[in-house]
Design brief:
Elements: H1 2-18, E1 31-37, E2 41-43, E3 47-55, E4 63-68, E5 80-86, E6 91-98, E7 106-109, E8 111-115, E9 120-121, E10 128-131, E11 139-140, E12 146-147, E13 152-157, E14 164-168, E15 179-181, E16 189-192, E17 198-207, E18 213-223, E19 235-237, E20 241-243, E21 252-255, E22 260-263, E23 270-273, E24 278-281, E25 290-293, E26 298-299, E27 306-309, E28 314-315, E29 320-323, E30 359-361, E31 368-372, E32 379-383, E33 389-394, E34 401-404, E35 411-419, E36 422-430
Parallel strand pairs: 2-10, 12-18, 19-21, 20-22, 21-23, 22-24, 23-25, 24-26, 25-27, 26-28, 27-29
Antiparallel strand pairs: 1-3, 3-6, 4-5, 4-8, 7-10, 8-9, 11-13, 13-16, 14-15, 14-17, 17-18, 30-31, 31-34, 32-33, 32-35, 35-36
């Protein structure tokens, strides 16, 4: 019996040794594959998006990091870290970042993604072009006052040795299409002539290696012989006036016949000078002012802007000049002027002779205004100091008329009485 027990034990042991063992669990491999890059051409500073998929099991301290190669397309001699995602799970991820602003031009950049734990590296992306942004912003020197058909010099700056400057001079220029200049053009003038007037937009575009660019636009006004419009906010100069306040904001002056206006160091004013008006500068003033001179008006040489004048005007200004044989002012929206009519129907101002018999009272008034001895059938218009119409009436068969300004705000108003070709304008104060 003992022999049988021993035999059985040995037999079981042999069976156990001979039985195949179950396979040991294998650690899955980790992989990283770049799926897509948001472009193949970038400029330094551009946004960038890279999507990638990872598989396998990652350690609890793992992070996926996007890297940019050096300009030769390798990671051996330096690379740039662009962004990271901290995660331990497999799946698809996206890193949103940007190309570093100082990245030099190359068409051989590549991306890769690395996993930290365990250390795993993706295949490199295809070659990516990164263009270098021009380091300087283009600028243009002020060409000053410009008239049609004048030869003007434009100076440009801020072009580097590897950059190209493209210039579009805008509509009405002899050179309509863009023209390019290399760095040797830096600071040199380019002569241009405009055949039409009005606002012109000059576009400068500086292109760096790889096609990346910066641009800017500049606006200039080209003067022609179009009749200028006297605006409703023009300051009427009816007596000899010295205006010397420095650094005043932009103003428009309408100078009546026989009146002188002296201007101090004001910039960008516009002056409409009727026949017999005189314009003077003071302390080197009137810089870049614009003057429109009727026949018989005068302008002194202390001036650096533009003078548009009719034949017979006296022009000795030191700025640009343009003679216009048919120069007339457009008074359509001009403010009421006790010396000049608003408009005689042909866009020409005429002297206003105020009939002595017309009476307007009381002045000042609290609201009710009486008009007496006005021509029958007169059209009466009440305007504020901005030239805006606040009330209109028709006298029809009457020579007297009552106006009610009770609902108008306090201030100065102008009553314009028109009958046929005769126009009379008087001011009244509402208290």
């Amino acid at each position: 019996m003992k022999k049988n027990s021993t035999f059985f034990a040995v037999f079981c042991a042999v069976l156990l040794l001979a039985s195949p063992r179950p396979p040991r669990a294998q650690q899955p491999f980790t992989t990283i594959a770049i799926n897509s890059v948001s472009g193949t051409t970038f400029c330094a500073g551009d946004p960038l998006s890279v999507t990638f998929t990872v598989t396998g099991t990652w350690g609890h301290t793992n992070a996926f990091t996007l890297q940019l190669s050096n300009d030769s397309g390798t990671f051996d001699n330096g690379f740039t870290k662009l962004g990271s995602v901290i995660d331990t799970a497999q799946g698809t991820f996206t890193i949103n970042t940007s190309i570093p602003p100082a990245t030099p031009y190359s068409s051989h950049y590549r991306f890769r993604v690395i996993g930290a734990y365990p250390y795993t590296v993706s295949e490199d992306s295809s070659d990516i072009l990164v263009g270098e942004m021009p380091s300087n912003v283009v600028s243009m020197t002020d060409p000053g006052a410009i008239a049609v058909n004048d030869s003007l010099g434009f100076g440009f700056a801020s072009v580097n040795a590897d950059d190209t400057l493209y210039v579009d001079f805008g509509s009405g220029a002899n050179q309509v299409d863009s023209v390019s200049f290399f760095s040797s053009f830096y600071g040199d003038p380019f002569i241009e002539i405009y055949s039409t007037g009005g606002w012109k937009t000059i576009t400068l575009r500086c292109v760096g290696p790889g096609g990346c660019s910066v641009s800017d636009t500049f606006h200039i006004y080209v003067y022609d012989c179009t009749n200028p419009v006297v605006p409703h906010d023009a300051v009427i100069v009816s007596t000899n006036t010295v205006f010397t306040s420095n650094n005043e904001s932009y103003k428009t002056f309408w100078v009546n016949p026989g009146v002188s206006l002296t201007i101090g160091d004001n910039i960008d004013d516009t002056i409409f000078a009727e026949a017999g008006a005189s314009i003077f500068g003071q302390n080197g003033g009137q810089t870049r002012d614009i003057e429109y001179l009727k026949t018989g008006a005068t302008s002194d040489p202390d001036f650096e802007g533009m003078v548009v004048y009719a034949p017979g005007a006296s022009v000795t200004a030191g700025g640009g000049t343009l003679e216009c044989s048919g120069l007339a002012f457009d008074y359509t929206v001009a403010p009421p002027n006790s010396i000049m009519h608003i408009n005689d129907g042909a866009g020409v101002a005429t002297t206003n002779t105020i009939p002595a018999q017309i009476e307007i009272f009381p002045n000042p008034t609290n609201g009710i205004v009486m008009l007496q001895n006005i021509p029958m059938g007169s059209n009466v218009m009440v305007m504020n100091v901005l030239g805006e119409t606040v009330q209109t009436e028709n006298a029809r068969g009457n020579t007297n008329l009552t106006l009610d300004l009770s609902n108008s705000t306090a201030g100065t108003y102008y009553i314009r009485i028109a009958s046929g070709n005769s126009v009379t304008t008087k001011s009244i104060v509402k208290e």
